[in-house]
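dumping this here before i forget
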Amino acid sequence: MKIESQTRVAIRDGVNLKSRKPFCWGGLKGYEQFVAIGQALQSVSTDEPETEYLGYLRTRVERVVKSNRVLAQDLREAHTQLRRIAECLRYPPSSFPTAGTSEDPLSSEQIKREMEELLQEFQPDLKRRPAQAALHGAWHRLWQDCGSEWLLCYAIPGLPPDNLALESLFGRLRNHQRRVSGRKSTRELRDFGQCQVFFLAESEQDLLERIRLVPLEEYKERRRRLDEAEAPRRFLYRLHHNPLVTMRRLVDRHTARRAELSSDTSRSPPQE
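structure:
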């Protein structure tokens, strides 16, 4: 019974596998896990009463594998194409240590040319291959909208292709802040986060040189744009926690703004 329970756990795990990483697709990994479980259960003899339940599980697993074989093949081909896209972009950087060096020089024009060739080669059956059709549509849309921004990291030496290292740094700072304060909120990092980053710099001069790379006016403009981008999320947060007070404040702001506009209109001189 313990072994049968572990088999059920393995089956349940294959059904509920999540996709937390870009190249680890839970659905595809779960199907491959089901295939492995079915192959393992093939060696179990169903002639004995003790193996009847395992035989029942094998029948169910084989049914699932058979009914999803075409969809899994479509998903596998889409995953292979996604890997080709990542290789074209030389991503992740840890898998291509020589990219951008004298051994493997790169340029934005080269990456653009290779990506355009991949786009032309990838022509799936959009009606019968839903996974590849979804990848085809998203790939073309993102490349058209953001392709020029992706190419910047190949044109500017030292510019990373993502901000995962920066997010990891501030993730660690948030964890430390929660442990120190005992509160979930890490709002203090917005004001004092740079002081904690100071302890991670090699020296004070190193920190100053990094800060001086960003012009002050550009930093202020970026902070203003960040506040504007976060305003809808903050509004929804307040609305979910206290809708009455939030809406009253919104109405009061609207009333004050109308009064301000009315006052400005009354003070303005009449036009001839």
